[in-house]
Amino acid sequence: MQSILPLPTQPVKPGTSTGLHFWHDETRKNLNVLDSYSPADGQLIARVHVSTRSDYDKVVETAQAAFAEWRLVPAPRRGEIVRQMGEQFRRYKRELGTLVSYEMGKSLQEGLGEVQEIIDICDFGVGQSRQLYGLTMQSERPAHRMLEQWHPLGVIGIISAFNFPVAVWSWNAMIAWVCGNVCVWKPSEKTPLTALACQQIIGDVLRNNDVPEGVSCLITGGGEAGEWLARDPRIALVSATGSTRMGKSVAETVAGRLGKTLLELGGNNAIIVSEHADLDLAIPAIVFGAVGTAGQRCTTTRRIIVQESIYGDVKNRLKKAYAQLRIGSPLDETYHVGPLIDRAAVTSYQQTVQEIRELGGQFLIEPGILDGLGFESGCYVRPCIAEAKNEWPVVQRETFAPILYLLKYSTLEDAIRQQNAVPQGLSSAIFTLNIREAERFLSTIGSDCGIANVNIGTSGAEIGGAFGGEKETGGGRESGSDAWKAYMRRQTNTINYGTTMPLDQGITFEL
Predict the structure, then answer these.
(1) What is the DSSP string of 46-101?
(2) Which has the closest alpha carbon to 193: 44, 352, 385?
């Protein structure tokens, strides 16, 4: 494949954002490196040096020093620097989007869309930099004023997942930066090169604006590097995106030192299809939600809960839609579905398919692994649909693959019960033209998810809304709305501008 961005032939050593240093060392064969392979064709893209504990400590020390300066920069000025970053990502949208597609395996359209999310959050961050509002409260004491302020936390640790290798970093970093924090990013060990590319893209902006070295830092590695962030009392907040298992470990470790976490974890998202649904709207949303990113989104549609009177019609429409899916290279825009991230994910897909069969599930759309010309990486699988029961253990858990479960319901109460009867609580949707059903779904006794949609699917989200979910999804919120508050500490202030000192319970002192 022709180079998308200039790629080094030697392992790349991550560090601070003032520039990427290509690491040349005769002893490289003895060093621990990450080999980044593309799931699209199985080719080795690059070798990236894994951060040592010594590297990590130097990065955090540099970040701490940078925070002392960066927090004093006026917030609108920080927003202006984020705006310039957005312009850089506009300039390199095609190149970075192509790299995302090639390293992660999502379609080129989705890779470009992910870079657009970076651009959008930069735009959002510019406005946010002038809206870090506090409140003024009425004091019960005469000649006193009460207010609250928000101050930056310090060093923010960001742990991102392979399925959105750059967008989720930006949701955290751009908002954290306008709030006055500095960031240490640990990307997925499966997609290190896209992270290095992001650091390189923003490098000129940081240098041209005399931003202190250490405002944007990068470490690489697997679970050990994530543990360093979780255990380190110098890291004020750990924002972690990934599996529920990983999130529980991070939460327990950070809580042990009374640190802060922002968790965006697994999803097991359902769409309720009412007898009052417009199926011309519902079917495209279901298919895109189920097969987009080859089922490797936390918002992927995994369950369809269909009213029994239209169950047969929905089945037939889904069969017709799935027959039109084209599977192939993510860099070819004529294909709808690309590969899974690696062969371990394919094994998980196979094991899940076997479990469905053992439980008596019937496949409406048969599963399978693709091989032969164009599928040499061994990472391509067929999106499938299985008729199942909501209480099955296999349905209760999240499998990161394009497996869709088809379920029936009789009453709306039954549908909502099934929707909520899983451990996860990220995204949900209902398709109905009945306003009572829509409002019931959005009410207190409706969906228990962080995202609940009407006549739109579960997959994807807009920058302006806070993104995240409840239960085993972790409870965190990233991106828009008032998610900025997670990256700041609240301080209540009281000012006495009078000439007396009123004390609680009427206590007085004779002086």
Answers:
(1) EEEEPPPHHHHHHHHHHHHHHHHHHTTS-HHHHHHHHHHHHHHHHHTHHHHHHHHH
(2) 44
Residue 439, Cβ neighbours under 10 Å: how many? 11
Specify whether the CB–CB gap between 474 and 263 falls below 8 A.
yes
Cβ atoms of residues 219 and 186 within 8 Å: yes
Helix axes 75-91, 192-208, angle to 10 degrees: 130
Q: Show the CA angle centred on residue 174, arms to residues 171 and 175, nearest 5°.
A: 80
Tokens of 368: 């399978």
Do strands 362-365 and 384-387 pair parallel, antiparallel, or not at all (unpaired)?
A: antiparallel
Tokens of 253: 């470790």
Neighbours of 90 (CB within 10 A): 13
Q: Which of 280, 281, 277 is nearest to 306 (CA)?
A: 277
**What is the number of residues in the chain?**
511
Q: In the beta sheet, which residues pair with residue 241? A: 264
Tokens of 451: 């995202």
Identify the pLDDT of residue 29: 41
Are the beta carbons of 121 and 186 closer than 8 angstroms? no
Catalytic residue list contains 264: yes
Q: How would you classify the pairing of strands 44-49 and 136-137? A: unpaired
Count CB neighbours of 504 within 10 A: 6
Cα(311)–Cα(434) distance, rounded to whole angstroms? 18
Using the Cα atoms of residue 222, residue 224, residue 225 and residue 226 in order, give the sign of their dihedral. positive
Sign of CA dihedral 396, 397, 398, 402: negative
Which listed residue (114, 264, 398, 472) is catalytic? 264
Tokens of 452: 């609940």
Query: What percent of the residues of the chain are helix, what percent strand, and what percent coil, each to the nearest 5?
Result: 40, 20, 40
Q: pTM of the entire structure? A: 0.93
pLDDT tens across 467-511, in order? 999 999 999 999 999 999 999 999 999 999 999 998 877 777 776
Cα–Cα distance, 385 to 306 (Å, whole number): 14
What's the angle, vertex CA 499, arms to CA 498 and CA 504, rounded to 5?
80
Q: What is the pLDDT of residue 508?
A: 74
Report residues of the chain scoring pLDDT below 70. Answer: 1-31, 511
Sign of CA dihedral 345, 346, 350, 353: positive
Whose CA is closest to 437, among 421, 452, 422? 452
The helix or strand, by DSSP H or E, that contains position 363, with its residue range, turns out to be strand 362-365
Buried b vs exposed e over 307-341: b needs ≥16 C-beta within 10 Å? beebbeebbebbeebbeeeebbbbbeeebbbbbbb
